Structures are given as structure tokens and as C-alpha cells.
Amino acid sequence: MNSFCRRVGIEMHTLQETPHLRQSRLASLRNAGGAWLLGCILGFVCFVLIGKKLRAMPDPLWAAVWWQLSFGVGLAMILGIIVVVTRIQHSSLAEIGWMKPTSMTAIMGGVILGGLYVTGVYAGILNDPSMRNVNPFALNWVRFFLIPLGIFMAVAEEMLMRGYFMTQLSNASVPPWAQIVMSGACSATYHSFHNLTWIGFIPSLVLFSLHAMLYVAAKRSLTPSVIAHSMYHVLCAPYLLMFAMAQSGS
After folding, report:
1. For residue 32, which of 85, 74, 84, 93 has the smallest C-alpha distance?
2. Contacts of 235 (CB under 8 A, 6+ apart)
3. What is the sign, positive or negative, of the torsion defined by CA atoms of 176, 154, 40, 198?
4. 46 close to 71: Cβ distance less than 8 angstroms
5. Predicted structure pTM score
6. Structural element, H or E, at residue 208
7. Average pLDDT of 222-240?
8. Which of 40, 92, 197, 239 is packed most tightly, with the most Cβ within 10 A?
9. Rounded to a whole number, what is the distance in angstroms from the first to the last CA of the chain?
10. pLDDT digit string, tens, across residues 162-203
11. Within the chain, how many helices (H) and strands (E) appear?
């Protein structure tokens, strides 16, 4: 924790000295807003429009699989946009944290966060009456099929809402603590489209603020937050989306 606080202090002290990649503060804020808008479009299309159709399917397992595939397609398009935009801005994926070296402490932080979240999901599934016929520990070919897709989705979303979004805020001289809050809040906004209540918003706000804290603590490497996010998908799919579908339908 002390290391994280020192890191935030150092970033706040040197923020004005960081090159702005030839962008004005206003342009950087606009870019960050564009990233959030992409997330909102993804959330609306997948959680609301596609989710409404899939909830009518008789088999919730296959509904969850198709739901995850739709997110994968949307995130593939978003990742393509990020690649193109970073090149236009004479930047690179490495500059927003992709494959950037970090400490073992930060990596372990990602593993711990992933483990805590997965434990919470399993507990929620096992204690929810609407999921009483679901065994989240069951192994089948569907789970193995979704593993590469889940990892890809984690990479793409972390590049969007931690890497690109928070780099643009940094370029606009937004202090690290505000970047953390904004990243958490903006991510929580579109993740709660399927459950527009405080119960749907607050847990996502806390979770993705922790992702943003990991990103800052890891010296702006995406590796720890990608590890945590990948664990959610790899260890919980497709039951996580089945659980989300049950919650949105209740």
C-alpha cells in the first residue's frame, strides 16, 4: 500500500513533465470520452439489445455462450479501433501498457484480485435459487472452448479502459487518483446496463477501480489487470454470464 501511495505521489509530481504526445489537454479528454463512448455502445448493444433476445432462449447455457461471442466480436472491433488510433497519434500499444515490464508484487496483486472475484462469483451462483441447477465447478468442452475468447476479451477491455482511457487522462494532466475513479466509474456504467440499479453499479465501480489502482501501482503495465480479468472469464465462463442473465431477469 505504501508503494502504491508513493507511486501515485510520484506521478502527481511529474505529471506536468510527462510528454503529451503532441496532443492538447482538450484533445486528450476528448479521446478519453471517445473510449468511454465505445464502451457504452458495446454495453448497450450486447447487454441490452442482444441480451434481451438471448434471455428468450430455452437453454441458458447456450444463451450465455452466444452472449460471450457477441462481446468478443464487439471487443475485436474496439481493439482494431485502438490500434488504428494509436498509430494515427504516433503512439503504440506498448505506450499504453501492453507487455510493459512490472513487478512481481503487482502481478501477485492481479492474481489475488482475480481469485477473490472468482470466489465471490462461485458463492453467488451456489446461493442463488435461480442457479440451483448449475454447478460452476463442472468441466465441459464449452468452458475450454471459451478460454481463448475470454483471455482476448480481457486484453481488449483492459487496453480500452485502463491502457488507452487512463493514458489519455494522464496526457490531459488528470491526477492519478481521479483517473482511478473515472476509469472505475466509466467501466461500471456500461457493465451495469443489464441491471440499472445501485446494486448493479456499485460492485462494478469497486472492481474496476481496483483494476485502475493495479494499473497505476504496476507502473502503468496492463499485465496485472489483464491477469485478473482473464481469471474472471477463464474460471467463471459461461456461468458468469448465466448468473448475470438471471440477475437481469429477476
Report:
1. 85
2. 114, 118
3. negative
4. yes
5. 0.89
6. helix 198-217
7. 96
8. 239
9. 39
10. 999 999 999 999 999 999 999 999 999 999 998 888 988 999
11. 11, 0
